[in-house]
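Lab meeting, item 3. Inverse folding demo.
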């Protein structure tokens, strides 16, 4: 596969993992998952990880994956690249895995003395990628191996932080997010 095709496949395959966090920013809030409880001196997760954000984010990601599956063939023909469809377990794995990765990062941030909203460069940009890929690989190793080849994974690791910084910067500028990371 040439580089452009590799980038297109990487972006397409990761879209169901990219949108959940943004959907949570737009539509989240309400009751925190940790119920306000502490572990030691600090919150288990903090007020930034809510039930609504997690459920709605996962739902939006799964919905997008199913929509992409419907149009993978015509879009793939138009751009002359074979694009993946998303079996339901994979759709769920990518979307929910992204949310779990982000929640895991908040757990680590609280354990390392960082308050809600504090930056943790590197972790902030890749937490959801690790969660999404791990859960997708766990639910359907064959699908994962077919689409997430070495070059596709390399593109994901390089491009995701750039996209993350870009979308969060826009969300901050539009006053949708409290910090630009
Ligand atoms: N959000 C949510 N539920 C989630 C993830 C995010 O409701 N599972 C919403 C919250 O309103 C959160 C916002 O999206 O404040 C931004 O997400 P994020 O930057 O991940 O959270 P922070 O508030 O920065 O908290 P943390 O330091 O724990 O990452
Ligand atoms: Mg944040
Ligand atoms: K985060």
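The presenter then showed the designed sequence:
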């Amino acid at each position: 596969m040439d580089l452009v095709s590799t980038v297109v496949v990487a972006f397409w395959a990761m879209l169901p993992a990219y949108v959940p966090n943004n959907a949570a920013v737009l539509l989240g809030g309400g009751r925190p998952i940790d119920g306000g409880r502490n572990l030691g001196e600090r919150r288990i997760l903090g007020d930034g990880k809510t039930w609504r954000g997690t459920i709605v984010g996962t739902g939006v990601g799964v919905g997008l994956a199913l929509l992409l599956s419907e149009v993978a063939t015509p879009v793939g023909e138009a751009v002359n690249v074979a694009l993946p469809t998303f079996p339901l377990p994979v759709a769920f794995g990518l979307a929910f895995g992204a949310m779990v990765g982000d929640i895991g990062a908040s757990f680590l941030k609280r354990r390392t003395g960082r308050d809600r909203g504090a930056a943790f460069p590197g972790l902030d940009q890749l937490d959801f990628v690790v969660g999404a890929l791990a859960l997708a690989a766990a639910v359907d190793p064959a699908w994962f191996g077919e689409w997430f080849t070495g070059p596709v994974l390399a593109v994901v690791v390089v491009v995701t932080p750039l996209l993350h910084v870009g979308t969060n910067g826009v969300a901050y500028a539009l006053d949708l997010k409290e910090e630009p990371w």
